[in-house]
Design a protein that fits this description.
alpha/beta; about 350 residues; single chain
């Protein structure tokens, strides 16, 4: 297939493109604006492939998206471009509305125009995959799981913007017949995640001998999904999913935030002991909680397992070990992508 990936220089997008180039025969055009979170360094291993090309383009730029669709002739659009950090959305929501809502609208309109010009097998096989988040469902108590039928109840500027984009995608399917697919995933982790999210922040703070910040008392629960498991699921949805359907993707790894931090500290204790011999756990510091911090997310991923045969390969322990090992071996990448853009400081305080 010819695949157009938006946000392909980001964390999940770059993992997807690396997987596609290294494990399939598909051709990929990467559409990315290269914001603070988009880094071509994450694609160095595939950058010279004749099946890969890069377009530095804003998804809000309709004429440029139209040109790329015309030139690349994609069979599939995999839309991952998004502003994604909750804390940043608290500090400034406008860019989240612009990219996540207006950008998705632009892509949908350009995809609709492109799709309407297709015929035969090319038209029959075209798919528009919209990659979203479990945060659109709101917050769970101690029990229960998000399913594809869970009503939307977003609580942050970020999740509200993603919920809006989900609704747009469904509307373009029902109104215009665009063959769309939607996935809602749990928290991703793994190599090349920009160091503003919990796991890379903890790793780097620990190695730097700084205080490791944990929001509130650390009891908030998330389901953790290793990024390579996620991209396998996305490809499976594109290949076998039914147009108009939604598929929840989870890792079956519910963990309290504090337990995640303990696992990272213990793994670092083993792989790279602190110079003074103390445990990295001693650097943990509890800080003021995030405003409106959702208590618990948990994904019921039985639909994608039942209908498409996908299950995660990594457990939390195996995935976390692979992640810590990657960061220990790629400190230069961390320094490169954060230079002049981010100092690991706290965001999202009101």
């Amino acid at each position: 297939m010819k695949i157009a990936v938006t946000g392909g220089a980001g964390f999940i997008g770059s993992a997807l493109i690396r997987y596609l180039i290294e494990n399939t025969s598909h051709t990929v055009v990467n559409i990315d604006k290269l914001t603070y979170a988009g880094h071509l360094e994450s694609l160095a291993s595939v950058a010279e492939s004749p099946r890969y090309r890069f377009e530095q383009t804003d998804i809000c730029d309709g004429p440029q998206i139209r040109r790329i669709f015309r030139e690349a002739e994609p069979d599939v659009v995999m839309h991952l471009a998004a502003e994604s950090h909750v804390d940043r959305s608290i500090d400034g929501s406008a860019e989240f509305v612009r990219t996540n809502i207006n950008g998705t609208h632009t892509l949908l309109e350009e995809a609709r125009g492109y799709y309407n010009g297709l015929s035969g097998a090319k038209r029959e096989g075209f798919r528009f995959l919209h990659v979203s988040t479990d945060e659109v469902y709101g917050s769970l108590g101690d029990e229960g799981f998000f399913t594809e039928q869970t009503p939307y109840d977003p609580r942050s500027p970020y999740s509200s913007s993603k919920a809006a984009s989900d609704h747009l995608v469904r509307a373009w399917h029902h109104t215009y017949g665009l063959p769309v697919l939607i996935t809602n995933c749990s928290n991703n982790y793994g190599p090349c995640q920009f160091p503003e999210k919990l796991i890379p922040v903890v790793i780097l703070k620990a190695l730097q001998g700084q205080a490791i910040p944990v929001y509130g008392t650390g009891v908030n629960v998330r389901d953790w999904l290793y990024v390579e498991d996620h991209v396998r699921a996305l490809l499976r949805v594109v290949e076998q999913g039914a147009p108009g359907e939604t598929y929840n993707i989870g890792g079956h790894n519910e963990k309290k935030n504090l337990d995640v931090v303990h696992t990272i500290c213990d793994t670092l204790d083993e792989l790279k002991p602190a110079p003074g011999g103390q445990s990295y756990r001693e650097q943990i510091t509890f800080v003021t909680d995030r405003p409106g911090h959702d208590f618990r997310y948990a994904i019921d991923a039985s639909k994608i397992e039942r209908e498409l045969g996908w299950t995660p390969l990594e457990t939390f322990d195996t995935g976390m070990r692979r992640t810590v090992e990657w960061y220990l071996s790629n400190i230069d990448w961390c320094e490169s992508v954060t230079k002049n853009t981010y100092d690991l400081g706290r965001l999202g305080k009101v």
